[in-house]
């Protein structure tokens, strides 16, 4: 081999040495960082395999202890145990103690003379008072058990709906229930917006005592502060016309809107109802003042009857009420507190419906209490705990699937920390449920939901999604293609020369030597 050939071979080898040395450096410096996530554990949470949701609720029977009453309580326990065998909410009947919980006080003194058999009243806190006539004492276990199961039945159905909805997403089941789908989804903060919308430019309501009316809402919002934070805003709009024409009644003395037209009522395209650029979920309460030429305007239900409240709910959005002006008033441009009071009573009722607040059986009398009594508030807590556990778990599952499918997605350490935090607080939530510490469970579930959403919507994860593999090939091929061509051709040529040289040497060794 000549000196020039050796020199050429060393030059080619040197070039390829630096290329091979640079490849791992380039690979390491351009790789996408992906923090390790517990994908299998996240998937198990999403499938509901890590937490058995169950609410154990003690119910205290406050009654004089004697042999008959003890037998009655034992029979009540048997009935309750049999009927709630598959329930998520488990009632545990106990004798009187100092626990501040659901309590039933029984009395046969019949203080109310007009009661012939049994009377049920809620006066304060979590106590249900039952006055009964002595002759129905043998029926008390059945009456009390049916009452208790009625009280908790709506909560049971709500929780089951969400659990089955989760199951349907995994097993392709179809599930639809307007009662539950209208409920606004959980948010750590809600913006409540009261809007006064005038449908005309004439005879408008330009002032309303909204600050005074908010007093009706404040006590309720204080009660709900453990669930979410609520911000209250208000606004007035003018010249907000309907997209359709209401029809006249047969008598010709009023205008009407059928239930089929409810979805078209709010003109989202032209009514600018957004007050802020907040990322919080908004619950709208809208008072609509129709133009004078279509007043009075009333809403009709599915059975073609007038709706007494003249209002309707928009699922997961808010509530709308139509206010017809009394043109005999001295000042029709002002909605005073007297006129707003019945409107706000309707809004409060609709607000509780949007939150999914369970109601109590109609046969239980409720004496003047705070807007939301403890029985209903506790039920709302239980529903939100369930919803939060499911929401946080499903978010973990979605993030796990996303991380497995999109390989060029960055997973920063912060996301890993948020996922770990979510799992920790989900475990704490489930442990608090087992210990019947529902306030702690609610707080932990809120933290779990917020951490899960923070992890899923981390903005740094989507940065590399704008540079898929096809984009990389389009950049690297024009850049490195011309560089590799002069490197590959000499390498192939030198490899070919090496093979020829090797074959020549091998043939020389095989040739026999001639003796002289």
UniProtKB/TrEMBL annotation:
Recorded hits in InterPro entries, A to Z, give: PtdIno-glycan_biosynth_class_S
Keywords linked to the UniProt accession: Endoplasmic reticulum, Glycoprotein, GPI-anchor biosynthesis, Membrane, Transmembrane, Transmembrane helix
Positions in coiled-coil regions: none
Q: How does it sit in the membrane?
A: Multi-pass membrane protein
State the pathway, as annotated in the record: Glycolipid biosynthesis; glycosylphosphatidylinositol-anchor biosynthesis
Q: Where are the transmembrane segments?
A: 9-27, 473-492
Q: Give its localization.
A: Endoplasmic reticulum membrane
- What cellular component terms from Gene Ontology apply here? GPI-anchor transamidase complex
* Location, primary (coarse class): endoplasmic reticulum
Q: Some GO term, biological process aspect, for this entry: which one?
A: attachment of GPI anchor to protein
Q: Which family does it belong to?
A: Belongs to the PIGS family.
Which PANTHER family does its entry note? GPI TRANSAMIDASE COMPONENT PIG-S
> What name does UniProt use for this protein?
GPI transamidase component PIG-S
Which organism was this protein described from?
A: Pneumocystis jirovecii
Q: State the organism's lineage.
A: Eukaryota, Fungi, Dikarya, Ascomycota, Taphrinomycotina
